[in-house]
């Protein structure tokens, strides 16, 4: 997966650490409820975890490579069927509060806010999606 480097590694590290945390306690849904030493991507405990669990981190790197390779093959196949648009990709409207993006770069997000949808005929009270928005005052690119 060309050009993914550091952000890909930290996604895999997060996935391995998340799997470990959920195995320890099913209620550890994301980094905000993990033990404190794992809540910061830069902590010595996270570094030690990654060094001690290289096989698990590598497994999640492999899964990302596999998904990338399979999607690329599907896209290539679609081009043979004159599909000018190719394949439709889902575009997420935000990130999970306890996900890898906020774990790696929480200063980029307004963690006490949430995006959603305004009231309409189907949802008269509106919708709270529980997704923290990016802080518009930040002018730097996220790590992930």
Automatic annotation (TrEMBL):
Q: Which reaction does it catalyse?
A: Transfers a segment of a (1->4)-alpha-D-glucan to a new position in an acceptor, which may be glucose or a (1->4)-alpha-D-glucan
Keywords on this record? Carbohydrate metabolism, Glycosyltransferase, Transferase
The secretion signal range is: none
Which is a GO BP term held by this UniProt record? carbohydrate metabolic process
Which Pfam families does UniProt cross-reference here?
A: Glyco_hydro_77 (PF02446)
State one molecular function term (GO): 4-alpha-glucanotransferase activity
What is this enzyme's EC?
A: 2.4.1.25
The record, for InterPro entries, names: GH, Glyco_hydro_77
Family, similarity comment: Belongs to the disproportionating enzyme family.
Write the protein's name: 4-alpha-glucanotransferase
């Amino acid at each position: 997966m060309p050009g993914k480097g550091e952000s890909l590694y930290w996604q895999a590290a997060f996935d391995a650490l998340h799997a470990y945390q959920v195995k320890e306690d099913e209620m550890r849904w994301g980094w905000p409820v993990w033990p404190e030493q794992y809540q910061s991507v830069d902590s010595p405990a996270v570094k030690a975890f990654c060094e001690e669990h290289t096989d698990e981190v590598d497994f999640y790197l492999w899964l990302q490579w596999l998904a990338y390779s399979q999607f690329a093959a599907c896209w290539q196949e679609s081009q043979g069927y004159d599909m000018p648009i190719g394949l439709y990709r889902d575009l997420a409207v935000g990130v999970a509060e306890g996900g890898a993006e906020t774990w790696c770069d929480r200063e980029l997000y307004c963690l006490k806010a949430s995006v959603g949808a305004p009231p309409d005929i189907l949802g008269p009270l509106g919708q709270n999606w529980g997704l923290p928005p990016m802080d518009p005052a930040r002018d730097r690119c996220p790590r992930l």
